[in-house]
Amino acid sequence: MNEGNERNDGECGAPITVTVANGANEQEFEAHKGESVATLLGRIRETMNIPDGARILQSGNVIGDATLLTHNMRIEIQRQAGVKG
Asked: How many CB atoms sit inside 10 A of residue 22's CB?
């Protein structure tokens, strides 16, 4: 049972930390549990220089934009072959 101000990571909207790696650049961002990858990337696209059409990976597997974020999730951005950043 959640008493008062105890944090419940199972609740939708709870603050979480997500690590995003794009080439040599790796940074942690605050997000909210239940937020999609697309929403986070939309907020950080310019900061992290994420190109349109980039592949998104988690643990080496391609994931979709609709994937929901979880605490301590690490995602990698992979540019298309032959595209310089």
From this structure: 20
